[in-house]
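User: Structure with PMV, tokens only please.
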Amino acid sequence: MNETFVYNSLGNKNIKGISQWQSPSNIALIKYWGKKPDQIPMNPSLSLTLTNCYSKTRISYQSEVLSNDDFKFSLLFEGKREISFENKLLTFFDRIKHYCPYLLNLKLIIESSNSFPHSSGIASSASFYSALSLSIMDIEKHLNSKIEKDFFFKKASFLARLGSGSACRSLMGPVSLWGESELFKDSSDLYAIKYQNEINAVFNDVNDTVLLVDKGKKDVSSSLGHGLMNGHSFSNDRIKQAHNNLKEIKSALKTGDYDLFIKIVEIEALSLHAMMMTSDPCFILMKPNTLQIIKEVWEYRKETNSKICFTLDAGANIHLLYPQNEYEKIQNFISLKLSIFCENGEYINDKIGVGPNKL
Ligand code: PMV
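Assistant:
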């Protein structure tokens, strides 16, 4: 238990209010894969915060004297009650109750919606838990107005991590770092921090087009995949590789070395999937069209000298990263050559962003 983030009751205030946040998704360049108990990552990860793929979460809260240790909440997702999701949320509330005991004295109505289609194969957990955690911190601020901005976001990231690890990186932008690394003195396994080191202007306007190769639910959840890193034959080497790649990408970000950036981003994406393919039991989340797209991207880069590269989440969809000065050419390339590999030809144009907004 980390005592820094425990809320010490200031007496039983009667409160009522509404808090609402919008928070984006993020895409990891250095991948988090494998965790220790309490959502502690096996290795540090680095991500780009996005703009267009976001969740909006609103909590209506009201004090209520409750007789037991149960949470009183209901969840409306896109206007409808989501019982299956309520169970996941119960696990989250259970994890955070030590840090936010005031939640036990409140009746909550949580309403959430996403800017991207529900069945797009894009995980909404990062944007959802980050928006939810910020709304919870608004309640904490209602109880204790002295909370400072820095603590507010740090604790929100700490709470979001307990919902879904990668969610803790959505609290700030344009680049976030989560997990201890000797290269960054303020880094922590408990929450993400804004990447404070120098970022060359060539990375100012990175675009991320998400190619929706498979809009269905994944065969293997990320929780299961993370679990399989315990006892994995290559886990020690993978952890070492992630640390090395973090060092390399730090240098690429500083010097503006796009080729090094591309190399590291693609190695990370394929290493993530290599870990899945070599775990016990093994599994494959990429689809034939994922590989087709990778092949096309490599050919296009060779022919045009473009700075396009790809990365992958724990799924079949491809994230294409490229600089703004290639936007039109690459949009053309996508619609002519890549959209045929997407489900119903669909893709989502997103770009690097600065983080959440209070609504
Ligand atoms: O946050 P989770 O438990 O959904 O795990 C996310 C893992 C990856 O998306 C594959 C990598 C990452 O760092 O985001």
